[in-house]
């Protein structure tokens, strides 16, 4: 794959490689681990609907915006922003958008690696038969005792982080391309197998009701904010991942069509994950809002009972690990590209030091499930705060700035040129979305949630 090693001038060898890489970035733990549990914590149907609304009206337009900034700037996000700001004659302070992305990237990678480590461990647990014939209580208690051991989860976290660092250090070459080309479709097929099994043995009716029947009386401002954050997280937006991948995209590729496809795959996989998990949740009397362990507790029950479950289960967690790896690479890549450009370090040194820093932060998240479980600020552990701040605050904020930049600071001509769909209805729709809908939507949701938060901590009353 023609991603740059030293220079960011190189390009993807084809549109498909970009689609694969961007899908590899988008599809990961966000779809299979985070989407179901955040949906469970926010009451289901109405949350899913708001999530879909956020993807279509805010996520996709901003994703197109990020890609076009990357392709036009052709550098790491911070420097691409500076280049474009100079080109458009606006303040170079816009580069701070890139900075925000680098900080968000560090935080996300830190906890992402911890959870990906769980997935690695589960390849062996499930493959080794730890869940054969299991029930809800046993599966949950295995998860609790696993995450309760700091050393164990720090070990798996280290393994995952080292692997990510090595791949990024080598430049994202052929390996990744193969990974996304074969392993992502394989993950999709295996997910379908679990969906079919869950549908036939679990409580499908309750699951479909839960996911798709919207009861708006359950919806709070916190849930709306969570839906927005999940849309950004799942589409890899607001921190420069899609921007850096866009910077390797050739000028001939159609951004709208390509991005449309990536967003469709991402959303489809999240929905499938929901359909795999919730029939089991309701069939086995589990609690949908039980938090980050949801996928690990539910799917293992399915694997514990289905024919060849040990094999399918091990394979599933292996593929989930690969999906997480292709996402983690895209989180580290913009950071490393910027370090290489700015300090003229070698890629190896830049990757090593960046991964190490994220690893250290990740240890805090790993400890949140055991030693530090009781250290909480406004009810949230260190892990919860990392997840909340990066996903729900920084990513939407980054996205908001991208929308304002492409909508108001870049010339209409420049954006139209990059999108290459003329200046007809489609382009006008995109422009209204980035100029008005996305910024106002994000601000309203932020404002609303801020009020609730202040009420929560009794500042306003
Ligand atoms: N989109 C990835 C996932 O769903 C996570 C990610 C977030 C990747 C931000 C890059 C940037 O798992």
Please tell me about this protein's structure.
It is a single chain. The protein has 461 residues and is mainly α. The protein has one domain (15-456): Amino acid/polyamine transporter I (Up-down Bundle), CATH 1.20.1740. It contains 18 helices and no strands. Helix 1 packs parallel to helix 12 (255-283), helix 3 (45-73) crosses helix 16 (382-409) and helix 10 packs across helix 18 (425-456). It is globular, with a radius of gyration of 21 Å. Residues 1-8 have low confidence and may be disordered. Bound molecules: phenylalanine. Residues 25-26, 28-31, 108, 233-234, 236, 239, 241, 327, 330-331 line the site of phenylalanine (PHE).
Structure, briefly:
By secondary structure, this protein is mainly alpha-helical. The chain is built from 18 helices and no strands. The longest helix is centred in the C-terminal third of the chain and has 35 residues, at 309-343.
């Amino acid at each position: 794959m023609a991603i740059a090693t030293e220079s960011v001038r190189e390009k993807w060898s084809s549109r498909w490689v970009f689609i694969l890489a961007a899908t590899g970035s988008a599809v990961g733990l966000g779809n299979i681990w985070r989407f179901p549990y955040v949906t469970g914590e926010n009451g289901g149907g109405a949350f899913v609907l708001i999530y879909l609304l956020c993807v279509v009206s805010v996520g996709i337009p901003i994703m197109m915006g990020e890609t076009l900034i990357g392709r036009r700037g052709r550098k790491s996000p911070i420097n691409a922003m500076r280049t474009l700001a100079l080109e458009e004659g606006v303040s170079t302070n816009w580069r701070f958008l890139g900075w925000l992305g680098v900080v968000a990237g560090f935080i996300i990678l830190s906890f992402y690696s911890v959870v990906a480590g769980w997935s690695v461990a589960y390849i062996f647990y499930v493959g080794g038969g730890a869940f054969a014939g299991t029930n809800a209580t046993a599966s949950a208690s295995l998860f609790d005792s696993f995450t309760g051991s700091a050393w164990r989860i720090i070990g798996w976290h280290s393994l995952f982080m080292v692997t990510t660092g090595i791949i990024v250090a080598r430049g994202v070459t052929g390996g990744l391309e193969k990974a996304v080309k074969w392993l992502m479709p394989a993950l999709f097929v295996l997910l379908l197998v679990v969906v079919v099994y869950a549908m036939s043995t679990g409580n499908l009716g309750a699951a479909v009701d839960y996911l798709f029947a919207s009861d708006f009386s359950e919806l709070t401002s916190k849930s709306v904010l969570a839906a927005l954050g999940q849309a950004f997280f799942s589409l890899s937006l607001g921190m420069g991942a899609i921007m850096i991948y866009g910077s390797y995209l050739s000028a001939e590729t159609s951004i709208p069509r390509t991005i449309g496809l990536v967003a469709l795959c991402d959303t489809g996989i999240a929905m499938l994950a929901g359909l795999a998990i919730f029939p089991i949740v309701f069939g086995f009397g589990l609690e949908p809002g039980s938090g980050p362990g949801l996928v690990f507790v539910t799917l293992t029950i399915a694997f514990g009972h289905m024919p060849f479950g040990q094999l399918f289960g091990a394979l599933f967690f292996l593929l989930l690990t690969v999906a997480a790896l292709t996402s983690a690479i895209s989180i580290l890549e913009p950071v490393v590209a910027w370090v290489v450009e700015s300090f003229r370090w070698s890629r190896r040194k830049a990757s090593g030091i960046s991964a190490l820093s994220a690893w250290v932060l990740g240890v805090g998240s790993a400890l949140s499930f055991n030693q530090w479980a009781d250290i909480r600020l406004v009810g949230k552990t260190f892990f919860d705060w990392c997840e909340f701040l990066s996903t729900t605050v920084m990513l939407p904020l980054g996205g908001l700035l991208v929308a304002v930049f492409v909508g108001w600071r870049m010339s209409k001509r420049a954006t139209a040129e990059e999108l290459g769909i003329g200046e007809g209805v489609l382009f006008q729709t995109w422009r209204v979305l980035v100029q008005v809908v996305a910024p106002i939507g994000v601000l309203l949701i932020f404002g609303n949630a801020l009020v609730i938060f202040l009420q929560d901590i009794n500042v306003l009353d």
